[in-house]
């Protein structure tokens, strides 16, 4: 009888131990959890970013067997870019795709990625991101409350104008250009001799149509999706700064998922990013042709005089980032150019 009782107690203790271990594993992210993620962005549904977001959402749902679903809110319906980023840090939004200048408000070194005329081609951009820069920057993003899932794309930013082509820096003098609330963009316009005015993206169409500003700057894909030929006659292909976008997630929400789910999110983020990069890069020529067919005049000025005029912005950036951060960035930048 005593042996029977002792055996029963041992079995009960063992069962409780296994149960407790299972519970601990689930709490530590070992078990898959059900989650609905909110993904907000500021671009049109015709833009490559939205197409990439749809691909990401569909793949994540399929690979997690419906345990994770992603609801997408395009066109600034949840707020403008700075507001969306803030919502992610607060946990009221889960996913966002800010550009480098927006990320730089949390991790200043990202300002340097956008330094004027830092990169001349997409090959140069890819070489830089293959140096390990993101391995260094990722912990800084985590400290700010973000989890980095993958690099997406925005493209090289260039200028449009309603009044004339911008063939030399002198053509900027006396003209007013809309810039986002980002330092490099406004500082470059000023360095080139123009006047910069910060206007929210959602207010830009009205500002252009009313003549509040003479021009603006954005990548070709964004100019095309916004149909800026309705207010802008000239596009000057200066490609003065490169912007990536980064698929970032609220870190606490990311940490609440299982290791398997985290792996799926990162893998599908990379795939969607490659899709978006291809969309942006391969469609640029056709988009320029379409803009020409809608009345825009496209010019390809010599960028050397512009780069020389804007070189002062680099020194200002060095002060913003700090000597240590600047030097570390330059190590990666120099390695990418060898």
Q: What is the N-to-C order of secondary-structure elements (H for helix, E for strand)?
A: HEHEHEHHHHEEEHEHEHEEHHHEHHH
Relative helix content: 40-55%
CATH architecture of the largest domain, by name, is 3-Layer(aba) Sandwich
CATH class category name of the largest domain: Alpha Beta
Strand order within the widest beta sheet: 7-6-8-5-9-11
By oligomeric state, this entry counts as single chain
Mean pLDDT: 92
State the major sheet: 6 strands, mixed
Question: How large is the radius of gyration?
Answer: 24 Å
- Total strands: the figure is 11
How many independent structural domains? 2
Principal-axis shape equals globular
CATH superfamily descriptor of the largest domain: Bacterial extracellular solute-binding protein, family 7
**Helical segment count:** 16
- Cα separation of the termini: 81 Å
The poorly predicted ranges are 1-28
Q: Determine the CATH topology of the largest domain.
A: D-Maltodextrin-Binding Protein, domain 2
Structural class: alpha/beta
- The proportion of strand residues reads 15-25%
Report on this model:
The chain has 338 residues and is α/β, with parallel strands linked by helices. The protein folds into two domains: 35-102 and 129-153 and 245-282, D-Maltodextrin-Binding Protein, domain 2; 156-243 and 284-336, Bacterial extracellular solute-binding protein, family 7 (D-Maltodextrin-Binding Protein, domain 2, 3-Layer(aba) Sandwich), CATH 3.40.190. 50% of the residues lie in helices and 17% in strands. The chain contains 16 helices and eleven strands. α2 (48-63) links the parallel β1 (35-40) and β2.
